[in-house]
Amino acid sequence: MQHNNIPPSLHTEVRDNILLVTLNRPDKRNALNDATILGLENIFSNIPDGVKCAIIYGEGKHFSAGLDLSELSERNAVQGVHHSRMWHRVLDKVQFGTVPVVAVLHGACVGGGLELASACHIRVAENSTFYALPEGQRGIFVGGGASVRLPKLIGMARMTDMMLTGRVYNAAEGEQIGLSQYLVDDGAGLDKAFELAQKISANAGMTNYALMHVLPRIVDAGQDVGLMMESLMAAIAQDAPEAKQRLRDFLEGRAKKVGE
User: Fold this and answer.
1) 10 has which bridge partners?
2) Domain ranges of the chain
């Protein structure tokens, strides 16, 4: 399946109720040019009916080596702001869209590729994955949301170190510090992502919505506002007919207990 108006650097396919989005520039290490970013915006603005979860995957040996520097033209400050804000708009569509998104990482997850991965809700890394923010060594600053999203995953000091020194984290180190939530053997990432996506798809819709749209705002809020948002969201979620049925199923022994 291919959406209208998306470039050949992207491919989409629906399996059951899961949308697989493939970065398809293996000869360019899946470097992200403007056409690819705008294609992602189109895809995540038009999730097909019935899809409950999405997976982003990179064709070839790498998830994404970042911004396509071969297409980087000299920009003045105004143009630079608009280009950065375009990335922000698109990655917000990924993070705050209609379905949770699982990223499958392997090989390079660098610069803009790490920014894309950090906008996803779950990251599965294969053993070949490595992470870096080379912008600091190239005389530039991140512009695709890394300064907001990455410190929430790994802490400000670690991101500062990555940019000041060019530090590269391998897959095992990345899992330990929070760049991924899962670490799997090479070649096993997509299967793991589909397993997780099926679990996510089975959740109550309002629960997934709350985790995508409300939890990040609670984290960004002060404690009083955050706790009030939690109370409101808890009340709304438990009022849904689906939630009431799930609770009855649990109380009457029809649902699995934790650890079963």
Assistant:
1) 23
2) 10-201, 205-251
Q: What is the dotted CATH code of the domain comprising 205-251?
A: 1.10.12.10
Per the DSSP assignment, residues forming a β-bridge with 64 are 109
pLDDT single digits (tens) 143-197 = 999 999 999 999 999 999 999 999 999 999 999 999 999 999 999 999 999 999 9
CATH number of 10-201: 3.90.226.10
Q: Which of 13, 59, 71, 115 is catalytic?
A: 115
Active site residue 230: no
74 carries an active-site annotation: no
pTM for the model: 0.94
Strands 130-132 and 169-170: antiparallel
